[in-house]
Design goal:
0% strand; mainly alpha
């Protein structure tokens, strides 16, 4: 713990503490809402997943330019808490709908699509603020700790879900998540003030301000993907990562539906996977990732994930059991949350402020969901053509290999841009 504390400088402590608390509560709420969403998927069945992914992609494609348009017209200091207020009211609406018609398939489908759109925006908005508060040098030291705070919250969320779902039901869980979002709003306001304090106490902090909207139009984020090779590498990293994720998600949804009959049991099973993932992720983030990135660089953190996933898919091919599929899910998500996410977020600290909110949002949401959509339909096509388990494994291995190449290119470019800013 002494080595961890040595990474933190005196002027950074308040901002870091607020960031850790905010991410703790945000992911705690997220991991209450997420098992509810994944339970809905088991009700609708894997045969409907490609349709749900299509609707989610369309919703994301609509929401992203709306968010960018608001960012161009509303001061960031109002926009950031404002979007969380909107999502809080959405949760309350769904709580009322599930109380009124708990088995209505249209409401179930609507919740699945809504959360699948909103969950990416929640995390993206939080990290947009983080890369706008902390510089590349600070991020290399501190982002693993912030992510660790989130993972501890992600442990609390599944625990609460498992303990309370039988007593409170899905509606009660939604109300608890809404209370968490209310706390997140308060912490975001405190974080925005801490940004100003950090600027005054450290010349390393990002010098941008939040008292203005962003210039440009709602489609600037999309335009940057075509103009910037760096943005395209970030998008490629995200796309291939989601292909890997979706292969594993199809395995999970199918097996949980076949293994458990009751909805509450399915929710508990999914929450159990979340709990194991987040315990492992929190330990790695607290004691391992920060040191790895500082010693070997961001590129090593980015490339490590694809390597792990190639090995995990090969292990599943050799032993295609329920236990191995559960192990694949745990390994895949630990690698993503404990290594890929903070390493990738550091890469956004070297771009302009507008890119931190606009291009980043497009990559975090639209590109992510396009990856889901394309992978889902690809797997549906393979099944329709008579290919099954091993074809999905081959897709996972191929995507992981391509992911490794893109990760290496992205990491090298980040190091070049960081060195240029330091000169």
């Amino acid at each position: 713990m002494g080595a961890v504390a040595a990474q933190i400088r005196s002027g950074e402590r308040r901002a870091l503490a607020l960031a850790c608390c905010c991410y703790f509560i945000l992911l705690g709420s997220y991991y209450i809402l997420r098992p509810v969403r994944d339970t809905m998927a088991t009700v609708l069945g894997t045969g409907r997943l490609q349709d749900l992914f299509t609707a989610t992609f369309i919703g994301t494609l609509i929401a992203s330019p709306i968010y960018a348009a608001l960012a161009s017209r509303v001061k960031l200091q109002r926009l950031l808490p404002g979007v969380f207020w909107f999502w809080l009211f959405n949760v309350l609406i769904f709580a009322a709908l599930f109380r009124w018609a708990p088995h209505n398939r249209w409401i179930i489908g609507a919740y699945y699509v809504w959360f699948s759109v909103v969950n990416l925006f929640m995390i993206s908005v939080f990290w947009s603020l983080m890369v706008d508060v902390f510089s590349a040098a600070q991020a290399t030291r501190l982002f693993a700790l912030i992510a660790a705070g989130g993972e501890i919250g992600a442990i609390a969320g599944p625990l609460l879900t498992r303990l309370l779902v039988g007593r409170l039901g899905l509606v009660g869980l939604l109300l608890i998540a809404a209370a968490g979002l209310l706390l997140v709003i308060g912490l975001i306001n405190l974080l925005m003030r801490a940004k100003q304090t950090l600027q005054a106490s450290s010349d390393q902090a990002q010098q941008s301000t939040l008292d203005h909207g962003l210039s440009g139009n709602p489609f600037d984020g999309f335009r940057e993907l075509f103009k910037s090779a760096y943005a395209r590498r970030q998008a490629g990293f995200m796309l291939l990562m989601t292909w890997v994720n979706t292969v594993a998600y199809f395995f999970q949804t199918d097996l949980v539906a076949r293994s458990f009959q009751a909805i509450e049991s399915r929710t508990q099973a999914i929450a159990d996977i979340d709990l194991v993932v987040n315990l492992c992720s929190a330990a790695i983030l607290t004691f391992g990732l920060g040191r790895l990135v500082q010693r070997f660089g961001v590129t090593a953190g980015l490339v490590l994930n694809p390597v792990i996933m190639v090995l995990a898919f090969l292990g599943l091919a050799l032993s295609p059991s329920l236990f191995m599929i559960q192990t694949l899910q745990v390994v895949r998500r630990v690698a993503q949350y404990a290594i890929a996410r903070p390493s990738r977020e550091i890469c956004f600290t070297v771009v302009e402020q507008s890119s931190r909110y606009k291009a980043k949002n497009v990559i975090d949401t639209v590109v992510y969901r396009f990856g889901d959509l394309s992978s889902a339909w690809m797997q549906t096509g393979l099944r329709a053509a008579g290919f099954g388990f091993h074809a999905a494994i081959a897709l996972g291995v191929g995507a992981s290999l391509g992911w490794g190449v893109v990760a290496s290119l992205l990491g090298r470019r980040f190091e070049q841009m960081r060195a240029k800013l330091a000169d």
